[in-house]
Protein backbone atom coordinates (compact mmCIF):
# COMPACT_ATOMS: atom_id res chain seq x y z
CA UNK A 1 0.00 0.00 0.00
CA UNK A 2 1.60 3.36 -0.87
CA UNK A 3 1.92 6.03 1.82
CA UNK A 4 -1.22 8.22 2.08
CA UNK A 5 0.73 11.33 0.99
CA UNK A 6 1.51 9.63 -2.32
CA UNK A 7 -1.96 8.23 -3.02
CA UNK A 8 -3.51 11.31 -4.76
CA UNK A 9 -0.37 11.65 -6.92
CA UNK A 10 -0.43 7.96 -7.77
CA UNK A 11 -4.13 8.19 -8.66
CA UNK A 12 -3.41 11.05 -11.11
CA UNK A 13 -0.44 9.16 -12.55
CA UNK A 14 -2.52 6.01 -13.05
CA UNK A 15 -5.26 8.06 -14.70
CA UNK A 16 -2.75 9.74 -17.02
CA UNK A 17 -1.22 6.35 -17.86
CA UNK A 18 -4.64 4.88 -18.63
CA UNK A 19 -5.58 7.83 -20.84
CA UNK A 20 -2.27 7.56 -22.71
CA UNK A 21 -2.95 3.84 -23.19
CA UNK A 22 -6.43 4.51 -24.57
CA UNK A 23 -5.07 7.21 -26.88
CA UNK A 24 -2.42 4.78 -28.08
CA UNK A 25 -5.05 2.12 -28.83
CA UNK A 26 -7.22 4.71 -30.64
CA UNK A 27 -4.26 5.83 -32.79
CA UNK A 28 -3.39 2.20 -33.58
CA UNK A 29 -6.99 1.51 -34.58
CA UNK A 30 -7.07 4.63 -36.75
CA UNK A 31 -3.81 3.53 -38.41
CA UNK A 32 -4.99 0.01 -39.05
CA UNK A 33 -8.31 1.30 -40.45
CA UNK A 34 -6.36 3.67 -42.73
CA UNK A 35 -4.08 0.78 -43.78
CA UNK A 36 -7.14 -1.31 -44.52
CA UNK A 37 -8.62 1.41 -46.75
CA UNK A 38 -5.25 1.77 -48.51
CA UNK A 39 -5.16 -1.99 -49.14
CA UNK A 40 -8.65 -1.78 -50.60
CA UNK A 41 -7.55 1.16 -52.80
CA UNK A 42 -4.45 -0.76 -53.98
CA UNK A 43 -6.62 -3.76 -54.79
CA UNK A 44 -9.00 -1.64 -56.88
CA UNK A 45 -6.06 -0.10 -58.74
CA UNK A 46 -4.69 -3.61 -59.36
CA UNK A 47 -8.02 -4.53 -60.96
CA UNK A 48 -7.53 -1.64 -63.39
CA UNK A 49 -9.84 1.02 -61.92
CA UNK A 50 -8.58 4.59 -62.16
CA UNK A 51 -7.66 6.38 -58.95
CA UNK A 52 -10.78 8.58 -59.28
CA UNK A 53 -13.08 5.57 -59.65
CA UNK A 54 -11.27 3.66 -56.88
CA UNK A 55 -11.69 6.57 -54.47
CA UNK A 56 -15.30 6.97 -55.60
CA UNK A 57 -16.00 3.30 -54.86
CA UNK A 58 -14.43 3.60 -51.41
CA UNK A 59 -16.49 6.72 -50.73
CA UNK A 60 -19.67 4.96 -51.88
CA UNK A 61 -18.94 2.09 -49.48
CA UNK A 62 -18.94 4.58 -46.59
CA UNK A 63 -22.70 4.95 -47.05
CA UNK A 64 -24.59 3.51 -44.03
CA UNK A 65 -26.40 1.21 -46.48
CA UNK A 66 -23.27 -0.94 -46.63
CA UNK A 67 -22.97 -1.21 -42.83
CA UNK A 68 -19.20 -1.11 -43.17
CA UNK A 69 -17.19 -1.30 -39.95
CA UNK A 70 -13.70 0.25 -39.66
CA UNK A 71 -11.06 -2.22 -40.80
CA UNK A 72 -13.42 -4.19 -43.06
CA UNK A 73 -13.10 -2.20 -46.28
CA UNK A 74 -10.53 -4.43 -47.98
CA UNK A 75 -12.49 -7.59 -47.15
CA UNK A 76 -15.70 -6.07 -48.54
CA UNK A 77 -14.06 -4.91 -51.78
CA UNK A 78 -12.51 -8.36 -52.29
CA UNK A 79 -15.91 -9.95 -51.64
CA UNK A 80 -17.56 -7.67 -54.21
CA UNK A 81 -14.85 -8.48 -56.76
CA UNK A 82 -15.88 -12.14 -56.54
CA UNK A 83 -13.87 -14.60 -58.66
CA UNK A 84 -12.35 -11.73 -60.69
CA UNK A 85 -9.30 -13.84 -61.69
CA UNK A 86 -11.57 -15.90 -63.95
CA UNK A 87 -13.64 -12.96 -65.18
CA UNK A 88 -16.26 -13.23 -62.42
CA UNK A 89 -17.78 -10.44 -60.37
CA UNK A 90 -20.04 -10.15 -57.35
CA UNK A 91 -21.18 -6.57 -57.72
CA UNK A 92 -17.99 -4.50 -57.92
CA UNK A 93 -18.23 -3.86 -61.67
CA UNK A 94 -21.75 -2.47 -61.38
CA UNK A 95 -20.79 -0.28 -58.44
CA UNK A 96 -17.68 1.05 -60.20
CA UNK A 97 -19.70 1.70 -63.35
CA UNK A 98 -22.32 3.66 -61.40
CA UNK A 99 -19.60 5.65 -59.62
CA UNK A 100 -17.83 6.47 -62.89
CA UNK A 101 -21.06 7.47 -64.63
CA UNK A 102 -21.91 9.82 -61.76
CA UNK A 103 -18.41 11.33 -61.85
CA UNK A 104 -18.60 11.88 -65.62
CA UNK A 105 -22.08 13.39 -65.42
CA UNK A 106 -21.02 15.67 -62.59
CA UNK A 107 -18.04 16.80 -64.69
CA UNK A 108 -20.44 17.57 -67.58
CA UNK A 109 -18.69 15.10 -69.90
CA UNK A 110 -20.21 15.00 -73.37
CA UNK A 111 -22.19 11.94 -74.49
CA UNK A 112 -21.35 10.92 -78.07
CA UNK A 113 -23.64 8.80 -80.24
CA UNK A 114 -22.46 6.65 -83.13
CA UNK A 115 -23.97 4.10 -85.48
CA UNK A 116 -22.78 0.54 -85.98
CA UNK A 117 -23.43 -1.53 -89.11
CA UNK A 118 -22.86 -5.24 -88.47
CA UNK A 119 -21.95 -7.39 -91.48
CA UNK A 120 -25.38 -8.99 -91.14
CA UNK A 121 -28.33 -7.72 -89.15
CA UNK A 122 -29.78 -4.30 -88.63
CA UNK A 123 -27.61 -1.26 -87.86
CA UNK A 124 -27.90 -0.01 -84.31
CA UNK A 125 -27.10 3.08 -82.31
CA UNK A 126 -24.59 3.27 -79.48
CA UNK A 127 -23.50 6.04 -77.20
CA UNK A 128 -20.73 6.63 -74.72
CA UNK A 129 -18.97 9.39 -72.85
CA UNK A 130 -16.30 11.40 -74.62
CA UNK A 131 -12.90 9.98 -73.70
CA UNK A 132 -14.12 6.38 -73.92
CA UNK A 133 -13.07 4.02 -76.69
CA UNK A 134 -15.42 1.75 -78.63
CA UNK A 135 -13.94 -1.10 -76.61
CA UNK A 136 -14.75 0.66 -73.32
CA UNK A 137 -18.35 0.96 -74.47
CA UNK A 138 -18.53 -2.67 -75.64
CA UNK A 139 -17.12 -3.81 -72.31
CA UNK A 140 -18.78 -1.52 -69.84
CA UNK A 141 -21.64 0.27 -71.58
CA UNK A 142 -25.06 -0.26 -70.13
CA UNK A 143 -27.56 0.50 -72.85
CA UNK A 144 -28.90 -1.88 -75.48
CA UNK A 145 -26.52 -0.55 -78.15
CA UNK A 146 -23.50 -1.22 -75.94
CA UNK A 147 -24.68 -4.74 -75.27
CA UNK A 148 -25.11 -5.37 -78.99
CA UNK A 149 -21.68 -3.90 -79.65
CA UNK A 150 -20.16 -6.33 -77.15
CA UNK A 151 -21.56 -9.18 -79.25
CA UNK A 152 -19.67 -7.94 -82.31
CA UNK A 153 -16.42 -6.71 -80.75
CA UNK A 154 -14.80 -9.41 -78.67
CA UNK A 155 -11.87 -7.21 -77.56
CA UNK A 156 -9.94 -10.30 -76.47
CA UNK A 157 -6.75 -8.50 -75.47
CA UNK A 158 -8.48 -5.81 -73.38
CA UNK A 159 -7.22 -3.03 -75.59
CA UNK A 160 -3.47 -3.66 -75.73
CA UNK A 161 -3.50 -3.95 -79.55
CA UNK A 162 -2.68 -7.63 -79.59
CA UNK A 163 -5.80 -9.34 -80.92
CA UNK A 164 -7.56 -7.36 -83.71
CA UNK A 165 -10.98 -8.63 -82.51
CA UNK A 166 -12.10 -5.00 -82.16
CA UNK A 167 -11.47 -4.31 -85.87
CA UNK A 168 -13.97 -1.93 -87.48
CA UNK A 169 -14.29 -0.13 -90.80
CA UNK A 170 -14.79 3.58 -90.28
CA UNK A 171 -17.21 5.04 -92.83
CA UNK A 172 -15.14 6.84 -95.47
CA UNK A 173 -16.85 10.17 -94.75
CA UNK A 174 -15.74 9.90 -91.11
CA UNK A 175 -12.21 8.60 -91.57
CA UNK A 176 -10.53 12.01 -91.65
CA UNK A 177 -12.30 13.07 -88.45
CA UNK A 178 -11.37 9.84 -86.67
CA UNK A 179 -7.81 10.02 -87.95
CA UNK A 180 -5.35 7.41 -89.18
CA UNK A 181 -4.02 4.55 -87.04
CA UNK A 182 -0.67 4.81 -85.29
CA UNK A 183 2.19 2.72 -86.66
CA UNK A 184 1.69 0.15 -83.90
CA UNK A 185 -2.04 -0.05 -84.61
CA UNK A 186 -1.39 -0.39 -88.33
CA UNK A 187 0.90 -3.37 -87.64
CA UNK A 188 -2.00 -5.11 -85.97
CA UNK A 189 -4.48 -4.03 -88.66
CA UNK A 190 -2.24 -5.59 -91.32
CA UNK A 191 -2.96 -8.94 -89.63
CA UNK A 192 -6.68 -8.29 -89.12
CA UNK A 193 -9.44 -9.99 -91.12
CA UNK A 194 -9.75 -8.32 -94.54
CA UNK A 195 -8.31 -4.92 -93.63
CA UNK A 196 -9.32 -1.89 -95.68
CA UNK A 197 -8.03 1.64 -96.08
CA UNK A 198 -10.45 2.86 -93.40
CA UNK A 199 -9.79 0.06 -90.91
CA UNK A 200 -9.24 1.00 -87.28
CA UNK A 201 -9.09 -0.88 -84.01
CA UNK A 202 -12.11 -0.09 -81.86
CA UNK A 203 -9.91 -0.04 -78.78
CA UNK A 204 -8.01 2.90 -80.27
CA UNK A 205 -10.94 5.03 -81.41
CA UNK A 206 -11.55 7.54 -78.64
CA UNK A 207 -14.91 9.29 -78.74
CA UNK A 208 -14.86 13.09 -78.91
CA UNK A 209 -17.74 15.54 -79.29
CA UNK A 210 -16.70 16.08 -82.95
CA UNK A 211 -17.41 12.39 -83.60
CA UNK A 212 -21.12 12.77 -82.84
CA UNK A 213 -22.90 10.72 -85.52
CA UNK A 214 -19.83 8.59 -86.40
CA UNK A 215 -20.57 5.49 -88.49
CA UNK A 216 -18.55 2.27 -88.31
CA UNK A 217 -19.07 -1.18 -89.79
CA UNK A 218 -18.05 -4.50 -88.29
CA UNK A 219 -16.24 -7.03 -90.54
CA UNK A 220 -17.92 -10.41 -90.98
CA UNK A 221 -15.08 -12.15 -89.14
CA UNK A 222 -12.22 -11.32 -86.81
CA UNK A 223 -8.75 -12.79 -86.48
CA UNK A 224 -7.96 -13.32 -82.84
CA UNK A 225 -4.19 -13.04 -82.83
CA UNK A 226 -4.11 -12.98 -79.05
CA UNK A 227 -4.68 -16.74 -79.05
CA UNK A 228 -1.41 -17.19 -80.89
CA UNK A 229 0.82 -15.26 -78.52
CA UNK A 230 3.14 -17.81 -76.93
CA UNK A 231 2.69 -17.08 -73.19
CA UNK A 232 5.11 -18.91 -70.98
S1 LIG B 1 -9.02 -5.11 -78.09
FE1 LIG B 1 -7.40 -6.30 -78.88
S2 LIG B 1 -6.62 -5.11 -80.50
FE2 LIG B 1 -8.27 -3.95 -79.72
TrEMBL record:
Look up keyword Kinase and say if it applies.
no
**Record-annotated membrane-spanning stretches:** none
Report the superkingdom from the record.
Eukaryota
Q: Which residues form the signal peptide?
A: none
Q: Which GO terms describe its biological process?
A: P450-containing electron transport chain
MF-aspect GO terms: 2 iron, 2 sulfur cluster binding; electron transfer activity; metal ion binding
For this UniProt record, the keywords arranged alphabetically read as follows: 2Fe-2S, Iron, Iron-sulfur, Metal-binding
Provide a GO CC annotation, any one: mitochondrion
Question: What is the name listed in the Swiss-Prot or TrEMBL entry for this protein?
Answer: 2Fe-2S ferredoxin-type domain-containing protein
Organism of origin is Prymnesium parvum
